[in-house]
Recover the amino acids of this structure.
């Protein structure tokens, strides 16, 4: 009888070096050859235990590929560059995922082996982030990115569990958003009446569409006869990219450099005591320094490329999720304003002549080109200052529209449809109980109990 071990069977033997050795066939390598892993120990029992552990991982599909063990940094780099771009927008990738991964996750967790990452490592990581002055909502955002990346790793058999799901998520803070009052909204509309593209702010306060949806609104989706608009698209500008040969050296003057511990170049506020340690009062560049070899700041590159405009589906609309088309009714005064606005735009088109850029936009520059969000923001700031209104964001107009609808007795379900939210809980974040609503509730309770 042959003493040869059957194919794929693990083997354990005593070597000439005085140690015990074990070999386990885990699978097949990329080149088609058998993937056999080696274990060694001083005693047969020690090697047997190691072989059985490796066999268990093989059977569970968690043994990993041959070669250097996959680290957290390796996996998140793969996830960030080849997996996430197919599931999220480029702006989310550039503004949220990439900065959080490269600035916080990879430097602090990257050296851990992916299959050996423990919940305790994440607990220590989140505690450390708090000591760095990050706001609770930022830490929550980082936790979600870690959890999403590890969930994909678990689905693909890189790890046997998603350890982020075993950690209590950090507690965020509710953002205190104060919508504009009815009187303040009227003041803004009065100030906008004499401005070019003044109807832009009537649409914002009356309909509550987002900034990108407003500047991307096209005439072919506006039916002034029926008094409706179809909100299904938003206008976005692609991020600029470096066109030079050395992106790191290109924007040398723009890099944020880590300040020394006792920096004398940046001073505390005048009201700070001598021993002030409040992080927000210290060097402004300490909070977000550029990483080594930074290739950002592409907007400042003299040879920059990209930055083109493109239409994309409105926020929240993905394959199998969200309503692609949202048809909203327009009030009579708003229809009148849009008719006037269209006549004014037709006159501008005649004046521009061949220089007119036909994007079919409702709100555009004098030559028909898209309005840059920064210019739109500057126009809003100028408008509220002229109207004597407190400082507010452009997005606060959306909150204001939702709250005013509730004050008029509109059902929150109808408000949900107008805002285009897929979940009622999301709409509740946009509607705020004002003193008028509170007083109305008190008056109705008074009528119910004592009337």
């Amino acid at each position: 009888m042959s003493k040869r071990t059957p194919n794929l069977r693990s083997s354990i033997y005593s070597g000439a070096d005085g140690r015990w050795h074990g070999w386990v066939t885990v699978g097949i390598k990329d080149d088609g050859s058998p993937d056999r892993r080696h274990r060694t120990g001083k005693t047969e029992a020690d090697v047997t235990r190691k072989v059985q552990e490796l066999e268990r991982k093989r059977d569970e599909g968690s043994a990993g590929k041959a070669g250097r063990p996959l680290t957290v940094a390796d996996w998140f780099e793969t996830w960030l560059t080849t997996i996430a771009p197919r599931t999220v927008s480029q702006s989310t990738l550039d503004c949220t995922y990439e900065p959080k991964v490269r600035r916080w996750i990879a430097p602090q967790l990257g050296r851990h082996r992916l299959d050996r990452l423990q919940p305790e490592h994440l607990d220590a990581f989140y505690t450390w982030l708090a000591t760095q002055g990050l706001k609770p909502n930022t830490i929550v955002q980082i936790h979600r990115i870690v959890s999403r990346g590890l969930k994909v790793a678990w689905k693909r058999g890189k790890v046997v569990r998603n350890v982020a799901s075993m950690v209590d998520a950090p507690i965020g803070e509710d953002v205190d958003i104060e919508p504009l009052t009815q009187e303040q909204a009227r003041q803004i509309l009065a100030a906008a009446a004499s401005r070019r593209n003044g109807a832009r702010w009537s649409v914002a306060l009356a309909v509550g569409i987002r900034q990108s949806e407003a500047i991307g609104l096209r005439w072919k989706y506006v039916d002034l006869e029926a008094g409706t608009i179809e909100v299904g698209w938003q206008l976005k500008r692609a991020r600029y990219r470096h066109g030079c040969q050395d992106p790191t050296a290109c924007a040398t003057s723009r890099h944020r450099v880590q300040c020394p511990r006792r920096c004398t170049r940046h001073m505390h506020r005048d009201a700070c005591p001598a021993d002030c340690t409040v992080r927000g009062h210290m060097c402004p560049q300490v909070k977000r320094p550029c990483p080594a070899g930074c290739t950002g700041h592409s907007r400042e590159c003299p040879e920059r490329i990209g930055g083109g405009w493109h239409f994309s589906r409105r926020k929240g609309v993905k394959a199998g999720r969200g309503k692609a088309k949202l048809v909203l009714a327009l009030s009579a005064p708003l229809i009148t304003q849009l008719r006037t606005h269209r006549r004014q735009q037709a006159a501008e088109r005649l004046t521009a002549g061949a220089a007119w850029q036909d994007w079919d936009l409702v709100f555009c520059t004098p030559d028909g080109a898209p309005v840059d969000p920064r210019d739109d923001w500057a126009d809003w700031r100028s408008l509220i200052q002229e109207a004597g209104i407190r400082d507010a964001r452009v997005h606060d107009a959306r909150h204001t529209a939702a709250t005013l609808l509730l004050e008029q007795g509109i059902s929150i379900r109808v408000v949900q449809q107008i805002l285009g939210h897929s979940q009622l809980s999301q709409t509740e974040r946009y509607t705020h109980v004002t003193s008028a609503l509170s007083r109305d509730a008190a008056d109705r309770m008074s009528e119910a109990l004592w009337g």
Observations:
- DSSP finds 15 helices and ten strands in the chain.
